[in-house]
Structure prediction request, 328 residues.
Amino acid sequence: MNRSELVFLYDIAYANPNGDPLDENKPRIDEDVELNIVTDVRLKRTIRDYLHDFKGQGIFVKEIEDENGNIQDAKLRAMDYLIDENGEKVDITDKNLSLSQIKRIMYDNILKECVDVRLFGGTIPLEIKKKGKSSITLTGPVQFRFGRSMHKVEMKHIKGTGAFASSAGKQQKTFREEYILPYSLISFYGAINENAAKKTLMTEEDESLLVEGIWNGTKNLITRSKFGQMPRLLLKVTYSDANYFIGDLDKKIKIEHDLEDDKKLRSVDELQIDVSQLIIALKSDLDKIESISVKFDPAVKFKDSVPIEVDLVEHLVENGLPATKLTI
Prediction:
């Protein structure tokens, strides 16, 4: 596996891409620059849920309740993987079994069973009675920065009435209120570190699942606050030179529109995505690039100084770049 950079663009309209539970679940906004923020944790949650629900993959980081409704903590979750080669629970009271041996069993089983740990790493605490405490720490080969909107946004406060009375015997219905963004085109930047991938045993198949999870997971996140999310562009640049990457590819992609204010944007139809600086950067390091994989929504209008009349992949190939369409 070689090093790769990822750029992912998606948009959402009249919804909340990532609410802050500590601030009335308002969409996260960097108020100094008026940009919408989506955490890397939100994107990883989207990928995890898709790989578990749609692809049947094992996931370590997920909410599990016991029969009393208590949510399992990380230590108990780790114990789910303390099983031997026959699938039987390991006896932790066995005096011949040391803490380091228990840790090794969990380590091997978690990496074998959990695609999210192979992709994103994790810190897994261990605490075994009479044997002591330890932890498993793995740096994930796949890392994302916070996603940021490619334009200024304006938050709207929406009020409405609920369907039920405020309490038994009352005629007055409850009121509800929420915060949404009329439109946000969000850009995520990430990288796949081939050195960390060796330690987490991340495979080429895991990489394919990651890419599918980014695109299809975003589209299939059908909840009231996220419904309507649409993936617009996914770019994966893979390098032939070890430990090399251009960096900040997301900052080489801009948007343009004819509106007087970014905050008036309401649809992807109202803007163009300018990839001219991206193409210049890729061409300047062409000898270090092994492949460029691209998935895009046909609804998006691209430009390279002037509007691109052909398919984006065809345009990249015409510029001498080794681009192919991602099949998802």
In short: The radius of gyration is 23 Å. DSSP finds eight helices and 19 strands in the chain. The mean pLDDT is 93.
